[in-house]
Structure formats: C-alpha cells, structure tokens
C-alpha cells in the first residue's frame, strides 16, 4: 500500500515524495566522494537497499505523519538528495536530517529544506521538539543546524560513531524561520 504524503514548496525548492524512479539517482549521489563521509556507514549501499529506503519512507509517513522528501531545486529535473524528519526509536525523538549531492553543497539548499522540515514538524505533526545529530567533524552540517536555530545539547555514541546532539523546541519556531 502506498501512502500519500505532501509536497512542500519553499523559495527555491520543491520537497516532494521520494518515488521508485529516484533510486538510481540516489545511488549515484551516495557513490559521490564525500557524500557519506560522516554517516555511520560511509560505503554506498547497493541499489536494492536504496529502493528499500524509499519504500521505508512511505511506511514511515504512514506511521508517523512525517518522513523524508526528495529535494528538487528550481530548474532541476532530478532530486539532488533528501531532507526531512525521522523518528529514532533509539532515542524516542524525531531528527531532522538531510543529504545533498556534492555539486549542490554550499548553496543554502540544506538549510532551506531543513527549515521547511522543522516547520512541518511543528505545525503539522505537533512535535514538541526536534533534534539533529551530526558528526563532530562535519562543520558544514553544524552550520546548517545552527542556521535552523538548533542548540547544542550533548555528545553521544550511537550507531557506532560519536555524534553531537542539537535541539530546537516548538516554543521557538520563529527562530527557525527568521534566523
């Protein structure tokens, strides 16, 4: 059963449901040098795992009412990555996350997609707070998280790596949009 989930339009992006035809594009992105450098497993997954990821997003949307979207900048015909919200049972919290193809780094897309994801989580999903997890060496992602108004909370070990945990509360959504 396919679950329908909404698309979101921002100033420069469309965040749209991930579809099966995105799998080869995501596979190519995952194979790009540096894209998975700070992920728990920096080795690009095979195509069947990428296809399962897309299917799992459909299921996640059905269970929680939020998940990851494909990121489509104005003028592009293929997704350049994904962004959205994931419930983490290990922490019993929801995380905002993003992944972009290398040619699109540094253009503000991760920040724009993350802000839209956070707004969706607070306005449509009634979450009281959202976290972000980032590898200590991933300074670019830490800048995105900071621009989203998220505040460093603590360090923790999860999925076999050390991570920094950031948080933003529902009571501060204006900071997310306006910062």
In short:
31% of the residues lie in helices and 29% in strands. The protein has 179 residues and is of the alpha+beta class.
What's the helix count?
5
State the distance separating the first and last CA atoms: 39 Å
Largest sheet: 5 strands, antiparallel
Structural category is alpha+beta
CATH class: Alpha Beta
Strand order of the largest sheet: 1-2-3-4-5
Cα-atom radius of gyration:
15 Å
- CATH fold description: Aminopeptidase
Name of the CATH architecture: 3-Layer(aba) Sandwich
Residue stretches low in confidence (pLDDT < 50, at least 5 long) are none
Form type: globular
Task: Describe what you observe in this structure.
There is one protein chain. This protein has 179 residues and is α+β, with helices and mostly antiparallel strands. The chain has a single domain (8-178), classed as Gcn5-related N-acetyltransferase (GNAT) (Aminopeptidase, 3-Layer(aba) Sandwich). The protein contains five helices and eight strands; from the N terminus they run E-E-H-H-E-E-E-H-E-H-E-E-H. It has helices spanning 23-30, 47-64, 109-123, 139-147, 173-178, and strands at 8-9, 13-17, 68-73, 81-88, 93-100, 129-134, 151-158, 161-169. Strands 1-2-3-4-5 form a five-stranded antiparallel sheet.
């Amino acid at each position: 059963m396919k679950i329908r989930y909404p698309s979101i339009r921002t100033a420069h992006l469309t965040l749209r449901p991930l579809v099966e035809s995105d799998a080869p594009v995501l596979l190519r992105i995952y194979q790009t040098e540096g894209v998975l450098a700070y992920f728990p497993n920096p080795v690009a997954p095979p195509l069947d795992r990428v296809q399962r990821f897309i299917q799992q997003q459909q299921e996640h949307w059905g269970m929680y009412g939020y998940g990851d979207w494909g990121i489509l900048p104005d003028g592009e015909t293929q997704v350049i990555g994904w962004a959205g919200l994931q419930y983490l049972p290990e922490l019993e919290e929801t995380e905002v996350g993003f992944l972009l193809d290398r040619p699109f780094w540094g253009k503000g897309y991760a920040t724009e997609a993350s802000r839209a994801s956070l707004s969706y989580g607070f306005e449509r999903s009634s979450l009281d707070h959202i976290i972000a997890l980032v590898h200590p060496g991933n300074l670019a992602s830490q800048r995105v998280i900071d621009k989203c108004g998220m505040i460093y909370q603590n360090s923790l070990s999860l999925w076999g790596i050390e991570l920094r945990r950031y948080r933003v509360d529902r009571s501060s959504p204006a900071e997310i949009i306006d910062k």
